[in-house]
Amino acid sequence: MTEQTTDDVARRAAAAYPATSQAAPAVRADALRRAAATLGDHTDELVALAQEETGLADARLRGELTRTRVQLRLFAGVVEDGTYLDARLDEADPDFVLGPRPDLRRTLWPVGPVLVFAASNFPFAFSVAGGDTAAALAAGCPVVVKAHPGHPRLAERVAALVSGALTEAGLPDGALQRVAGQDAGVALLEHPAVRAASFTGSQRVGQLLAARAAARPDPIPFHGELGSVNPVLVSAGALRERGDELLAGYVASVSGSAGQLCTKPGFLLVPEGTAYDDAVVAAASAVAEHRLLDRAIADRYDARVAAALGADGVRVVHAGHLRRDADGHGWATPTIAAAPLDAVRAAGPALLDEVFGPFSVVVEYPEGTDLAGVVAELFPGNLTVTLHLGAREDAPVDRLARHAGRLLFGGWPTGVAVTPAMQHGGPWPATTTDATSVGTAAIGRFLRGVAYQDAPQSLLPPPLRDDNPWNVPRTLSPRGASAAW
């Protein structure tokens, strides 16, 4: 895409902003539901395209497309409910305890055009019509999606289908656009019409883009999900009670979708002396090979596994393989390594950095180890931390919560529920801003607060007018209430 056409895209998004931001809730909700229905009508076509371009399994892709449609419908309900606007009304009060108070009304307003960088590993749910797009459209923001090169034809088709559904519902032309290529993405990130950006991908690329967003003459929010190693902490009691089941679940979580998930457990911490090899080998040996998403990911996986296994003190529990086909694509089975805690400390980034693919490390910790301290030292920012405890065992939950967006008690972090209470984010380096990209709270990334002081009714936005035409929930601070403070 040339510089001029990139500029045209940004200007179209800016031109679409007034109508998109002011569209009534019923219009925005209908647009999101139409988009979901349109994707459903083309399921077979889209899944076939996605499978051809990504190598992901048919069942996985159908489930992901269902998730994508659910996300769109979920945000339609958020728009209709109106609670997300956080509308607040303070009545004028000449006797307010701190001095006369004007009429103040505050609500959240869409930030403006949003640039979404699509992910490689979720060609539906974190791509053109994924959660970031759904949240931004629900907020009232036009969206420009920078398509991922791993599934270009799928991105083009989904964009055509969804943009058509949005315009049929009454949103303006330009409410959703797609661009391709790194240069186009960077140019749009730096374009003054773009007011926020979201990204799902590697830490290296995410940091580069975040720096570009921050270096603008007018810096904008950059919501980057940069990866996570998701440590799993296992107690001796948990192993005694359900050891084989727990270890089989671990291998299944590591190898699902060939380990190409941001919530894959990269480290399993177990007490020294635990006999886990046989159970891990039995589970890992039963896993069929799975294609990695593209050649570049296969190259990086190969290099990272070699670096991790080359660290001092690391041994191989189960040696998987990486088979390359004639086209250069990689087909992998899981590799599980192990190391004492001190060896992991000494290895540093060679072992601690994320390995994107079906690889994980069992870390053996001495009796009496402060596991919360280990998390703070070695795994300071993650999407998840998982605890497997025995009956009546305790854990320093408050300390662990400082280092993850989601704490799991049992179970496995892969599989992220699309639901209002989900938090899919975490402290740095998991994300650039500790927000969520899954669940209804994701809409907050694309809103900003605006207060109106002594504004005439005719100039107030609908959520703040006395007649409340959108019928949204509001918080009222009535005149005279401060007299009792």
From TrEMBL:
Q: What domain of life does the native source organism fall in? A: Bacteria
Query: Which SUPFAM superfamilies does this UniProt record tie to the protein?
Result: ALDH-like (SSF53720)
UniProt key word rRNA-binding = no
Oxidoreductase as a keyword? yes
| Segments forming domain Aldehyde dehydrogenase | 2-366
List the residue ranges of the region (Disordered).
Answer: 458-485
The terms under GO molecular function for this entry are:
oxidoreductase activity, acting on the aldehyde or oxo group of donors, NAD or NADP as acceptor
Sorted alphabetically, the keyword list is: Oxidoreductase
InterPro entries reported for this sequence: Ald_DH/histidinol_DH (IPR016161), Ald_DH_C (IPR016163), Ald_DH_N (IPR016162), Aldehyde_DH_dom (IPR015590), Aldehyde_DH_Superfamily (IPR050740)
Name this protein carries in UniProt: Aldehyde dehydrogenase
| Biological source species | Promicromonospora citrea
